[in-house]
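[job 0412] stage=complex_fold ligand=NAP status=START
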Amino acid sequence: MSTTAPVSLVTGANRGIGRETARQLAALGHTVLLCARRAADAERAAAELAPDVPGTLLPYRLDVTDAEGVDALARTVDARFGRLDVLVNNAAVNYDTGRRATHVDLDEVARTLETNLFGAWRTAQAFLPLLRRSAHPRLVNVSSESGSLTHMSGGTPAYGVSKAALNALTRKLADELHGDRILVNAVCPGWIATDMGGPGGAPVDRGAAGVVWAATLPDSGPTGGFFRDGKPLDW
Ligand code: NAP
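[job 0412] stage=complex_fold status=DONE, emitting structure tokens
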């Protein structure tokens, strides 16, 4: 299936901000590879969203902690499309509000990094050859102001460190991929009322809009930045 529409991949897109990001990209006419840990979850979300958007939503199983699965999906996307235009590393776990860095279980920290940092990192590595074949490649790491060193405070140790590291990775990739024209940015969606964010946050369409902004930047757009609602945040 070749397409002239932008081909976008969103991880953790069966619920929350990822699902809404997939919807908004499909509303712009993108062909969206809607990825979820379980195939049935991806299929359900794609089927629910498809009737109301002009773009195409294609469900795929993707657990970002499964290196072989990530590589296999990259091969599948290569065979089907020959390129990827937008990668949104959205999947994340463990907003560990009840924990403290002084005595948090380091196995829990490692598990959190495995998804929030290494999951995004290995997915980026696997899809870079396909992004390089895009005319307008974009890579968005969905981060959090919890990872801002400027505003870093105690608590949420695993999550905060994982997002600070994801921000560092964003800078590394942006610099290394400058010559390949790939715009790489980190986006904080803000406090959003999802399963992770809990009640009281802003609606999910608001959080996803900032992600979609970074996913659809013009060629003259920024790279190596940290943004919320399209505005720079302190690292
Ligand atoms: P959420 O509702 O908890 O959804 C998280 C998504 O990530 C789910 O689809 C989940 O899949 C998926 N996921 C977890 N581990 C995965 C793995 N190993 N492989 C693939 N997918 C995996 O979270 P959210 O609020 O939408 O958050 C989305 C992003 O925004 C995250 O990066 C989060 O850190 C960031 N963020 C959120 C807020 C907020 O207030 N909500 C604020 C700042 C930043 P399952 O359904 O299979 O668990």
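The mean pLDDT is 98.
[job 0412] exit 0
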